[in-house]
Amino acid sequence: MRRLFVLLPLAAGLTACGGASESGALQVGFTVSRGGPALPCAQVSEVLEVDVLLKDATGAVVGGVPRSAECADGVWSVSGVEAGEYTVQISAKGALSGDTSAVLFRASEVVTAPGSFDVVLQPQVAYLALDWTFGEAELGPCGTEVDTIDVIVSTGAGQEGSFSETFACTDGPVSIPQPLDLQQYLISVTANSSEGFPLFTHAAQRLLDRGLNTYTANLMPLGGQVFVDWDFVVQSGDMPVRPCDADSVQVLEALVTIESLEGGAPISEMVDCTDRPHAFAAARFTQGRQLALRVEAVGAERFIAEETFTMPAGDRVGERLVLHATSTATIAVEVSTSSCTPAQDDGIDMTITLQDDTRQLDVTVPAGERSVVLPELWFGTYLLEASVRTPQGPLCARTEYRVVDDGHADWGTLRF
Question: Which helix (H) or strand (E) holds 414?
Answer without folding.
Answer: strand 408-415
